[in-house]
Write a structure and sequence with these properties.
By secondary structure, this protein is α+β, with helices and mostly antiparallel strands. The protein has 11 helices and 14 strands. The longest helix is centred in the C-terminal third of the chain and has 19 residues. The C terminus is likely disordered. This is Aminoglycoside phosphotransferase domain-containing protein.
């Protein structure tokens, strides 16, 4: 890996571009004939007229094995992700096949394979403990393969796959400037730090002097890694038969090149506070420490010490560092400590940077109890 001829290297120049692209070699045209066509935007709109929170839900064409994501918030980049991953990691990372895309009336339409299965979120409660662990092991293997994707080392950036701004939901609202693209991880961290200062300028004659106590905790030397950025169980499709297996990772809208810790911290952000997964997985007997515990502790310490995100309802600025969540009461924040088994397994795919972050001062016993529970859980999974 890392050489110019790496089979896993993604460059902007290799991506199919244009406002209207059709992949005639895809399974859609093999199944329906080379002279067939994708449904027009008008047909798509007619097929699906429902909305959720102001956004159009994907249109389903069961007979054609077709799903169409469309709307003003959809971008061509999502289709480019599907194309690139299927081309570079065809058997390692299961995703829907993309058939094409187009634009009309200010909306983007992405035509893709309709994955037959159920979400892991819907099936999780019916799985036995060992079945859950097996699914988590599958996810870990998929993540490790995904993290093999590389940029041109001479042209690295943080942003969408096509060098556009990041579209993580944390960044996409009308109150924030575009999230990149950034040339350096340091630039990304400086931008995050800037967001925390928005609204405070009226109290400081020089905004550059507004303190940010968390900025120095962010590792500017973090590797840039390809990240899904929304690995919630609702975006993991699994089989309905036995054994339970992952058949597709879906919803790549927020994906892109991020610092290597972002996958884990975003999983923390999307975890449901007090959810059944969280309470269930933290139960059970403790096992004796072993070598894996040290590895897990280092990963968890790094991941929990680095910046996580939550949007405070009143001030709408980014609250830094999930590490400090265990020391503060933030009842208005949409964030929780990591509680899902499936989210914990993400930490094992992160690079360990032992000793980079110090344990915070203050309520050390409370912090240690939280970390101990996480370490026990991870050691149970990894044994």
């Amino acid at each position: 890996m890392g050489t110019d001829d790496s089979p896993y290297k993604i460059s902007v120049g290799m991506l199919p571009s244009g406002s209207s692209v059709v992949f005639k070699e895809s399974a859609y045209f093999l199944q329906n004939g080379p002279d067939s066509s994708l449904p027009s935007p008008a047909m798509v709109r007619t097929n699906q007229c429902f909305e959720h929170q102001g956004e159009s839900l994907p249109a389903r064409f069961e007979a054609l094995n077709l799903l169409v994501k469309y709307g003003k918030e959809i971008t061509i980049a999502e289709g480019q992700y599907l194309w690139a991953i299927r081309r570079l990691l065809p058997s390692q990372v299961p995703i829907p096949e993309v058939y094409g895309w187009c634009e009309e009336g200010g909306e983007v339409f992405i035509y893709m394979e309709l994955v037959k299965g159920v979400t892991l979120e819907n099936r999780w409660e019916s799985l036995l403990k060992q079945e859950r662990i097996k699914v988590c092991e599958q996810l870990r293997a998929i993540l490790l393969e995904l993290r093999n994707l590389q940029q041109d080392p001479k042209n690295q950036f943080l942003g969408h796959i096509n060098r556009q701004p990041l579209l993580d939901i944390v960044f996409t609202d009308n109150t924030k400037p575009p999230a990149g693209p950034f040339a350096l991880v340091k630039d990304f961290h400086d931008w995050l730090s800037y967001l925390t200062k928005q609204g405070k300028e009226i109290h400081w004659p020089d905004p550059s002097l507004i303190p940010d106590p968390f900025r120095d905790l962010l590792p500017d030397d973090s590797p840039i890694t390809f990240t899904h950025a929304d690995l919630h169980p609702s975006n993991i499709m699994v089989s309905t038969d036995e054994p339970c297996r992952i058949i597709a990772i879906i919803d790549w809208h927020q994906s892109g090149w991020y610092p290597d810790y972002w996958e884990y911290c975003k999983a923390v952000f999307t975890a449901e506070p007090g959810g059944e997964w969280g309470t269930e997985i933290l139960e059970g007997p403790s096992k004796k420490p072993h070598d894996k515990v040290s590895f897990v502790r280092d990963n968890m310490s790094t991941a929990l010490s680095i910046q996580a995100v939550s949007i405070r309802q009143n001030t709408r600025f980014i609250q830094l560092t999930s590490y400090y969540l265990s020391l503060q009461s933030m009842s208005n924040d949409s964030i929780s400590l990591p509680k899902y088994t499936i989210m914990h397994i993400l930490a094992t795919a992160l690079d360990s940077r032992q000793g980079a972050i110090e344990q915070p001062r203050g309520d050390e016993k409370r912090w240690q109890r939280s970390m101990k529970a996480d370490i026990i859980l991870m050691s149970n999974i990894l044994e």
